[in-house]
Amino acid sequence: MDKLSKANSYKEENHVSKDELPMFHVTPPCGWMNDPNGFSVYQGKVHLFYQFHPYSEIWGPMHWGHCETEDFIRWTELPVALAPDQSYDDAGCFSGSGIETEKGHLLVYTGVIEKEEDGEKKTYQNQCLAWGDGEQYRKYEQNPVITGEMLPEHFSREHFRDPKIWKEEDGYYMVAGNKTDQGKPQVLLFFSKDSMEWQYVSVLASDQDDTLGSMWECPDFFCLDGSYILLTSPQDLCADQEFHNGNNSVYYMGVYDRAQHNFHYQDVHSLDDGLDFYASQTMLASDGRRILIGWMQSWDSNIRPADQKWACMMTIPRELQLKQGRLLQNPVRELENYHKNEVVYKGKRISGMRQLAGIEGRILDMTIEIQSGDYREFTIAFAQNEKYQTSFTIRRDKNQIEIDRTYSGMVRDAISIRRVNARTTLKTCKIRMIMDKYSAEIFLNDGEQVFSNTFYTPMEADAISFYCDGTVIADIVKYDISMS
Ligand code: FRU
């Protein structure tokens, strides 16, 4: 049997029951998933592909899993789109993107090969194409279309991946992650008139101050509300006031010199301050919204129960906006169509430890808006019972925020606490929390700062409690999310 059919029949036979999976977050049907890929519209529907290894719950030779949606919330699973079955991609079909073209749905991805050279194993990464009808995809006969040979001297052929394609008036553009032989991370720009024949254009951006890690994975470049934004996921960052150690996802704001095809950034910020977020990718929805989705997982912390037959999930898709030079991220508005059982508290006074009737559950959308109060610390504890809890704490005196999943049921000593500075003063604040069984995505002050976190706490732990060391007066609105 060929590799694609094998992957498809394996996933059918080993499909995890839907009740075990999160309700509205994309997960693999079985096995392992990482980066979102090919997030794009084709024939009116939104398609999402992902890095997929069906055969085990750890990373392995990469396939592209596939699903589609009409509203970013209810996803339909589709056949595996790509398998590592050609001489130019047999070590993996790595990350890439998608776009609607006259010839069908075009996917661009990184074909990885490994060769034995002078007794050493060498890896090469090249860019490849596949076309499809939204369900079946065929790789291009002339793959790979961009190889390391087309790059300037001293640019890595081994670290050259994750193409993101878009169209402009004169043709197609593509960015891909790369680094120099001296280890400087950079994003390369390519151009094609017809989407098949490509040429190298420029180094679009590189690490200007030599502070941003070793390799920039998963670049994305787009214009939002009149400003150019670059996204990358740098590896091997060293923690500072803005970033945490290891793999981060960041956005850069700056000036794009179109003539030189060079983007000079003035600002770099973290995209998400939670424990689990990486490799994000955006798409332009048919109504003009720029939507971002990320992998809700960290490469450095594996906290899933050993017997769980699926690994990793995506974030909820988020609408992006620019406000006063900062990126705002908010859950897609379509989530509101699935709100059920509204519970409202107006001007509720909370002091000490408090639970509120109707405020509980593991699949919900809850907003707490602090109106006033005299306090230093305010905590929301969730996925909670006598044994377990995960918490989100605002420390107003230090202007800091802390997530703590130490007691979420982990049996590994992986990262469980993250403490970050709040971007704006926490004098008043609005906390929106989206929970879907094993994750909580927290949007602070209408998306000024986001915290994405997973925890694999047994489902019976579904209490929510509040703690305040002084007093807060808050409005609380909570909905269950229901797909039935
Ligand atoms: C990012 C990444 C990509 C690569 C893919 C492989 O998480 O390392 O750079 O294409 O994962 O699965």
Topology:
Blueprint: H1 3-13, E1 31-42, E2 45-53, E3 63-69, E4 75-82, E5 92-101, E6 104-117, E7 120-132, E8 137-139, E9 155-168, E10 171-180, E11 185-192, E12 199-206, E13 216-224, E14 227-234, E15 250-257, E16 262-270, E17 278-284, E18 290-295, E19 310-311, E20 318-323, E21 326-331, E22 339-354, E23 363-374, E24 377-384, E25 390-395, E26 400-404, E27 417-421, E28 429-436, E29 439-444, E30 449-454, E31 463-481
Parallel strand pairs: 1-19
Antiparallel strand pairs: 1-2, 2-3, 3-4, 5-6, 6-7, 7-8, 9-10, 10-11, 11-12, 13-14, 14-15, 15-16, 17-18, 18-20, 20-21, 22-31, 23-28, 23-31, 24-25, 24-31, 25-26, 26-27, 28-29, 29-30
The structure holds beta-D-fructofuranose.
Describe what you observe in this structure.
- The structure is a single chain.
- This protein is mostly beta strands.
- The protein is built from 1 helix and 31 strands.
- The protein has one helix at 3-13, and strands at 31-42, 45-53, 63-69, 75-82, 92-101, 104-117, 120-132, 137-139, 155-168, 171-180, 185-192, 199-206, 216-224, 227-234, 250-257, 262-270, 278-284, 290-295, 310-311, 318-323, 326-331, 339-354, 363-374, 377-384, 390-395, 400-404, 417-421, 429-436, 439-444, 449-454, 463-481.
- The mean pLDDT is 97.
- Residues 34-35, 51, 62, 94-95, 110, 161-162, 217-218, 278-279 line the site of beta-D-fructofuranose.
